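User: Design a sequence. Structure:
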């Protein structure tokens, strides 16, 4: 498999960003908005994230949401991955890597149903909130 960089993504927490710290690891829940631009696909993202905080203070983001294109088309999307603290960075930040899958019944978007995407993002404070931004890669099988 090889990766082809095809676009960019950004997401920011909106009105809900709640952490539930537990001794054995916590849970984080939040709502996010943002944008996705990959190839000829562009649109606004709205999602929820139910991320597990592991005892080692790393997170496992699990986003579910909707992409809406400027043309009014919709796609459901999922993102699952790992968020690692980069404490050496000034200011500290998170490196977030996820899979990204899309599903749509809209004819123009249906080709994306069969594509596995990966994201590589940097996370940190954005004003009073927290967000991520980065690159999107298409996974191209070589079997």
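Assistant: Done.
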């Amino acid at each position: 498999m090889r990766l082809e960089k095809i676009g960019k993504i950004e997401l920011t927490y909106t009105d809900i960003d709640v952490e539930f710290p537990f001794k054995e690891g916590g849970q984080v829940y939040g709502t996010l908005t943002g944008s996705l631009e990959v190839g000829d696909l562009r649109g606004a993202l709205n999602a929820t994230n139910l991320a597990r905080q592991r005892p080692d203070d790393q997170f496992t983001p699990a986003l579910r949401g909707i992409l809406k294109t400027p043309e009014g088309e919709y796609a459901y999307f999922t993102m699952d991955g790992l968020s690692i603290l980069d404490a050496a960075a000034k200011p500290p930040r998170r490196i977030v890597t996820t899979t990204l899958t899309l599903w749509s019944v809209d004819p123009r978007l249906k080709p994306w149903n069969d594509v596995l995407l990966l994201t590589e993002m940097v996370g940190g404070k954005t004003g009073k909130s927290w967000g991520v931004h980065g690159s999107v890669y298409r996974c191209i099988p070589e079997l």
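The chain has one domain: 2-140. The radius of gyration is 15 Å.
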